[in-house]
Design brief:
Arc Repressor Mutant, subunit A; transcription regulation; D-Maltodextrin-Binding Protein, domain 2; 3 domains; 6-stranded mixed sheet; alpha/beta; two-stranded antiparallel ribbon; WH_DNA-bd_sf; LysR substrate-binding domain-containing protein
């Protein structure tokens, strides 16, 4: 089958990205009727609907979702290719990442990056949800996982590592001599499967489903605050809480640090890999991590 017309593909890419015929028409400088005509021609060519049309919104069909990501990436690459070579094609670098990585490691370093690139506005957003680059105004994201996300370029930053930490006040309640002694104290987020991994690595029997209830918090930052207040033992990343460990407000009772096979990765659509702002941020992150071994 030959490639559909560029006009139809342009219309489909804009509607799929905005999930709106009106916004797509405004962006393309076309009437909404013209955009709808191009989509209808493309649907007839493919023999399947691309959008589910509802009263106040539209959504991609299964076929539409199949074609949307590569089409959006292709136009992203075209915009990149034909942009001004000497210009920074992104005046605002918007970064999305999980709250713990943002608060404990990235945000203290972003000022340094922005000062080195004063012509670039930097915006940091935090969320536990995966970014949909086709629909959200996000330049890059930092995700935790295995680095395999279809259609995205990914660069490994650091391993996800963790070890128990607690306040000195809580530690004084019992004589902590071996890892099994931690089971005599309240553990934060006992449903976290990483507890079983750490305990196993430390030679302690620990049930996959802990029998006792406990305090469950949504992020490592919240768990660290609860640990600082003496409410329990938190499973935290040492790299992220060096200040607390150095000042003694948190203590790491055992040197054992475990990994779960996941890591933090810088990701963005393949079509954006040559954008100057993203290249600069990528180089900055890798330099910072190289100078900050775990």
């Amino acid at each position: 089958m030959s490639i559909p017309s560029l006009a139809a593909l342009r219309a489909f890419e804009a509607v799929a990205r905005h999930l709106s015929f009106t916004r797509a028409a405004e962006e393309l400088g076309m009437t909404q009727a013209a955009v709808s005509y191009q989509i209808r021609m493309l649907e007839e060519r493919l023999g399947a609907p691309l959008f589910l049309r509802k009263t106040r919104e539209i959504s991609l069909t299964e076929t539409g979702a199949l074609f949307a990501r590569p089409t959006i990436d292709a136009f992203d690459l075209l915009r990149e290719t034909y942009s001004e070579p000497s210009a920074d094609t992104v005046s605002t670098l918007s970064i999305s990442t999980v709250p713990t990585f943002a608060g404990a490691w990235l945000s203290p370093r972003l000022g340094k990056f922005q000062m080195s690139h004063s012509n670039l506005a930097v915006r940091l957003e935090t969320s536990d949800n995966l970014v949909d680059f086709g629909r959200e105004d996000i330049s890059v994201a930092i995700r935790a996982g295995d680095g395999k996300w279809p259609g995205l370029a990914s660069h490994f930053l650091m391993h996800v590592e963790y070890t128990p930490m607690l306040s000195p006040e809580l530690a004084r309640r019992i004589d902590i001599r071996e890892p099994a002694d931690l089971l005599r104290l309240p553990l934060l987020d006992t449903a976290d499967p990483n507890w079983a991994v750490w305990m196993r690595d430390a030679g302690v029997e620990y049930p996959e489903c802990p029998p006792r209830a406990g305090l469950t918090l949504s992020t490592d930052l919240h768990e660290a605050r609860a640990a600082l207040a003496g409410y329990g033992v938190a499973l935290l990343t040492p790299r992220f809480f060096r200040f607390e460990l150095a000042t003694g407000s948190l203590i790491q009772p055992f040197p054992q640090v475990s990994k779960n096979g996941r890591g933090y990765w810088l990701v963005y659509p393949q079509g954006r890999r040559n954008r100057p702002a993203i290249r600069k941020f990528r180089a900055f992150l890798l330099d910072e991590i190289e100078s900050d071994p775990g």
